[in-house]
Amino acid sequence: MRLTLTVNGRPTSADHVWEGESLLYVLRERLGLPGSKNACEQGECGSCTVRLDGELVCACLVAAGQAEGSEVRTVEGLAGPEGELSPLQAAFVETGAVQCGFCTPGLLLAAEELLARAPHPGDADIREALAGNLCRCTGYENILDAVRLAATRTAQDQAQDQPPAPTNPNGGADHAR
């Protein structure tokens, strides 16, 4: 079959795809996107996590035929147009959250999804959002630090983008009556 989908915002297709092969295999071997990792092949580790039509999924468990016409976002889609790291990726590097790198793609996508729906997550929220991703290197503290740092920086950037509140001539905030 010919598999047609949108990957990281770009329409793409792959020919001679067996509809039962995994989406992970198609992404890595047919489309040249090696970011999502092939680790357990059972949906237990999170290394192959991608967003499929906006939902986090383990790409190793999705048959290619199920993805026909879908929108897929991989870890490669996090970087900016010139390849610059996203604020979340930069926070992972800065805090030492990246060790061997096998868990990193899934952790990044899970953290991105968390921060999109909860811009100021608490530790319990972060732990819950990342629970489907196993890391054997870091002990998780640096990963938690990275998500906290990214959340803080995103909040600061958004605050800087906000125009200042109007003031009245008396120096106080202008309140509607």
UniProtKB/TrEMBL annotation:
<dbReference type="InterPro" id="IPR051452">
    <property type="entry name" value="Diverse_Oxidoreductases"/>
</dbReference>
<dbReference type="InterPro" id="IPR002888">
    <property type="entry name" value="2Fe-2S-bd"/>
</dbReference>
<feature type="region of interest" description="Disordered">
    <location>
        <begin position="154"/>
        <end position="177"/>
    </location>
</feature>
<dbReference type="InterPro" id="IPR036010">
    <property type="entry name" value="2Fe-2S_ferredoxin-like_sf"/>
</dbReference>
<keyword id="KW-0411">Iron-sulfur</keyword>
<dbReference type="InterPro" id="IPR036884">
    <property type="entry name" value="2Fe-2S-bd_dom_sf"/>
</dbReference>
<dbReference type="GO" id="GO:0051537">
    <property type="term" value="F:2 iron, 2 sulfur cluster binding"/>
</dbReference>
<feature type="domain" description="2Fe-2S ferredoxin-type">
    <location>
        <begin position="1"/>
        <end position="78"/>
    </location>
</feature>
<dbReference type="InterPro" id="IPR001041">
    <property type="entry name" value="2Fe-2S_ferredoxin-type"/>
</dbReference>
<dbReference type="InterPro" id="IPR012675">
    <property type="entry name" value="Beta-grasp_dom_sf"/>
</dbReference>
<dbReference type="Pfam" id="PF01799">
    <property type="entry name" value="Fer2_2"/>
</dbReference>
<keyword id="KW-0001">2Fe-2S</keyword>
<protein>
    <submittedName>
        <fullName>2Fe-2S iron-sulfur cluster binding domain-containing protein</fullName>
    </submittedName>
</protein>
<keyword id="KW-0408">Iron</keyword>
<keyword id="KW-0479">Metal-binding</keyword>
<dbReference type="GO" id="GO:0016491">
    <property type="term" value="F:oxidoreductase activity"/>
</dbReference>
<dbReference type="GO" id="GO:0046872">
    <property type="term" value="F:metal ion binding"/>
</dbReference>
<keyword id="KW-0560">Oxidoreductase</keyword>
<dbReference type="InterPro" id="IPR006058">
    <property type="entry name" value="2Fe2S_fd_BS"/>
</dbReference>
<dbReference type="Pfam" id="PF00111">
    <property type="entry name" value="Fer2"/>
</dbReference>
